[in-house]
Amino acid sequence: MKNLLTSLFDYRVKRFTLVIASIVFIADIIHVSRQTIHAIETGKFTPSTLLALKMAHYFGCKVEDIFELEDSDLLQKSNL
User: Fold this and answer.
1) Which domain holds residue 55?
2) Is residue 60 in some structural domain?
3) In the prediction, which pLDDT does 78 show?
4) Cα–Cα–Cα angle for 7, 8, 13, rounded to 5 degrees
5) Distance between CA 63 and CA 61 in Å, rounded?
6) Total structural domains in the chain?
7) CATH code assigned at 26
8) How large is the average pLDDT for residues 18-47?
9) What's the chain's Rg over C-alpha atoms?
10) Residues 6+ apart with CB under 8 A from 18
11) Is the residue at 75 inside a domain?
């Protein structure tokens, strides 16, 4: 996930106090492995659109509140 910044960890920690238990709980809710949640948080895996939407729905926020592009990947208006 070199091109995607994530706030997933921040959203997860706000909801739960036990880090490991919360990873397992969220993974179970959105039907992925705990390793997937960890990989997303550490930038080793970019979630699919469906998975990002499920996470946003669970946390009651917009996808762009959890994920954002790095500045170097933003399109310049002149390129459009």
Assistant:
1) 4-66
2) yes
3) 63
4) 105
5) 7
6) 1
7) 1.10.260.40
8) 87
9) 13
10) none
11) no
